[in-house]
Design goal:
Blueprint (H helix, E strand, L loop, with lengths): L4 E3 L2 E5 L6 E4 L6 E3 L4 E5 L1 E4 L10 E5 L8 E6 L2 E5 L6 E4 L6 E7 L2 E5 L4 E3 L11 E7 L2 E5 L4 E4 L11 E5 L2 E5 L11 E4 L3 E10 L4 E4 L6 E9 L11 E2 L2 H10 L4 H20 L20
Length: 296
Amino acid sequence: LTKAININHPLTFKTLGSEKATILFERMMAFEIQNGGSLSLENITFDGTKSPDYAGNAVISTSKTSMIDNYKLFIEKCEFKDMVVNHSFDVLRVSKGTFADTISIKNSSFKNISGSIAALDKETDDIGAYNVEYFIMKNNAINDLQGAALRLYRGGKDESTFGPFLEVEHNVFDHVGYGKKNKYDATLSLYGVQEIDIKNNIFKDSKAINMTKNITTIQVIICCIFLCFSTMAQEHPSLILTKAGVQNIRAELGNVPLFDASLEKLKQEVDAEIALGIDTPVPQDYSGGYTLSNFR
């Protein structure tokens, strides 16, 4: 694409057949959702290698001016890769005064990206406004993402609005959130989200989930696997998973190819670590631990 596509009507872009079409774009964005528009993307690869060397690129953005109409965004079976020409390259970045009824991202992959998947944190006046009502993220694989995968903000104590509602399920987050520009220092940054349902995800060598509530009514359900083998980890690895969560994961095996492949890859890595055994040093000094000669 040599020019951004303005979306001012509901439009669908879709590849027919099993092989994905590849879209490269030479502007700071590929799509701009404007008033009256909604967007559906299916079975497409987006490659950022031809994008301009500017900070703050995005595959999808919303109008810079306020929008009267709500919009919807659906991403299904898409691939987003190599968006590192400069820092803060987001897949979706919205503007203040724009509001999505639904944003749904399913069965897609994100790899080698310098920003976030969804930057929904522009309503910072703390008067109860926010950028999306329902955000759904299911069955995705996220690898080498420098920013927070999701930045979702709802400030203020006004209880006349009921959202946002968040569902994050059956995703694999692998090495997410370690970019120098990630000011949130998190894989998921959630502020004031009303209902949070995060379950059956895998977090490997990724930053934490940051949640802040600023109202009295909030429902949170979290059931995930946290794996960390990085020497940079500052917290002890932990497993947060219920019996029902294990049953749900087993029940879904064979139904979600992306999740199956990522889970099998992680299983092989864990099995390899177990096979190495535990290296227990035999102390030869009064202080115990490794003896200096062991390092020579």
